[in-house]
Specification:
three-stranded mixed beta sheet, alpha+beta, globular, Amidase signature (AS) enzymes, single chain, 13 helices
Length: about 450
């Protein structure tokens, strides 16, 4: 096959038309993964041939190769280590409900992607390796905690990859690597039957993609009937004029990134939507409550794993500090943080009384160099502050249950992507994707690396 393949839908069409065989598609993906081993995107590959389980012949993504994140899921046959030796031997896992849906859609899962230990960082550099680098510039990080998934997609190893988001972990890596990242509304995506990555409802799962169209095509295949504690939100209609609240005045955001938000607002206004200015200070209390809830939930979760019998003696130093933080935490502290999430969600809904969608920067600055989020220290508070400084509007969507989408809208002076973020109330996922399609159609960004580049 000749010519550039831009996304998973294009690859699925090529396979269905016989322009490339299922075996050649998988061979190209594995070859690209091995050729780019120094990128550190892939932490595990299944044995040759093991990925050829039957897939539904008429599935929309029949025989498209993808990778699963080493956190969340799980996917049968893919060891789930969460970037840590603590979970060594955690191999005998059956498919989660979401994994079954990926397989029913026709995808062939042939490996796992790199994550920071237990997803605790916005860079994917686990001590056990590999160190995940940004395909756009190898001295930079690829984001976290779905950094390996983003790097694999951006490097053209796979057209999309499974990912999870508990504090920006889909959106930040997608933003670092010039990709599309949707954090679904709470309750939209199944997380059973084990709920091992539920984190009290702040975590959700979906995928990192190269195009909005792939995310739109995935949605009906993965979403709905969650069978968990959260009710499935009713999706708002994507049609009609929307009020877009524009936040482009946060003092911690580099000017080029604020300008990208302003440019995206102009594009949406030209598409027939109304834009209104929202001051960054209006989200300050929501952000603070969300940060507190994230800290407490993550710490308590790790402490509960220790209590369940997992030995953290060989874990990274910062991970052990989070465990100790959770172990020392009182039930009253945990309860107060969880209770604080309710008023934060209410306050965000109050913002949505005035606007339908929020438009914000995704990142404060370009992806930082490898080593910018060290974990060889005992200061969780300082670490969490570094993460919040880098992605100040990420965690609020997780704690409040809102839907959020990032996509690139231009490039900076170093040719790196300028990502923006759209946030909607729960049930606004399809609205976000429709707006994202409008922005993508402006042609402000085309990914410089094609799928399977140099492997065909």
């Amino acid at each position: 096959m000749t010519g550039r393949i831009d996304d998973a839908r294009a690859l699925a069409r090529a396979i269905a038309a016989g322009q490339i065989s299922a075996q050649d598609a998988m061979r190209a993906a594995r070859t690209q993964a091995k050729r780019m081993a120094d990128l550190g995107a892939v932490s595990f590959l299944v044995a040759e041939g093991d990925q050829y389980r039957d897939v539904p012949a008429q599935a929309p993504f029949a025989n498209v190769p993808i990778l699963a994140k080493d956190l969340g899921g799980p996917f049968e046959g893919i060891p789930m280590r969460a970037g840590s030796t603590v979970l060594a031997g955690n191999d005998d896992r059956s498919d989660s409900d979401l994994a079954k849906r990926f397989r029913a859609a026709g995808f062939r899962v042939f490996g796992a992607t790199t994550v920071p230990e237990f997803g605790l960082s916005l860079s994917s550099e686990p001590a056990i390796g590999p160190i995940c680098r940004n395909p756009l510039r190898s001295e930079l990080g690829a984001g976290g905690s779905s950094g390996g998934s983003a790097a694999a997609v951006a490097a053209g190893i796979v057209p999309l990859a499974h990912a999870t988001d508990a504090g920006g972990s889909i959106r930040v890596p997608a933003a670092c690597c010039g990709l599309v990242g949707l954090k679904p509304s709470r309750g939209a995506i199944p997380c059973g039957p084990g709920f091992s990555n539920h984190l009290g409802g702040i975590a959700t799962e979906f995928a990192i993609t190269r195009t909005i169209g792939d995310s739109q095509a995935l949605w009906p295949l993965l979403a709905g009937h969650p069978r968990g504690l959260a009710s499935e939100p009713r999706q708002a209609t994507p049609a009609g004029m929307l009020r877009i609240g524009v936040l482009s005045d946060h003092p911690g955001i580099q000017p080029q990134r604020n300008r990208a938000v302003a440019d995206a607002a102009v594009a949406l206004r030209r598409a027939g939507h109304e834009t209104l200015r929202i001051g960054a200070e209006r989200l300050d209390d929501i952000r603070a409550a969300s940060a507190e809830a994230f800290d407490v939930v993550v710490s308590a979760n790790l402490a509960s794993m220790e209590r369940a019998g997992h030995d953290f003696a060989a874990a990274e130093r910062l991970t052990r500090a989070f465990v100790a933080r959770g172990r020392a935490m009182s039930a009253a502290t945990l309860w107060a943080a969880l209770e604080g999430a309710g008023p934060a969600a209410y306050a965000l809904w109050s913002v949505f009384d005035d606007v339908d969608i929020l438009l914000t920067p995704m990142l404060a600055h370009a992806p930082p160099p490898i080593g910018s989020f060290p974990m060889d220290h005992d200061d969780p508070a300082a670490h969490l502050q570094r993460m919040d400084d880098f992605a100040p509007f990420a965690t609020l969507a997780n704690v409040t249950g809102a839907a959020a989408l990032t996509l690139p809208f231009g490039r900076d002076d170093a040719a790196l992507p300028l990502p923006v973020q759209l946030i909607a109330p729960p049930g606004g996922d399809l609205r976000l994707l429709a707006l994202g399609a409008k922005l993508e159609a402006c042609g402000r960004w085309q990914h410089p690396i094609g799928l399977f580049e140099d492997c065909r």
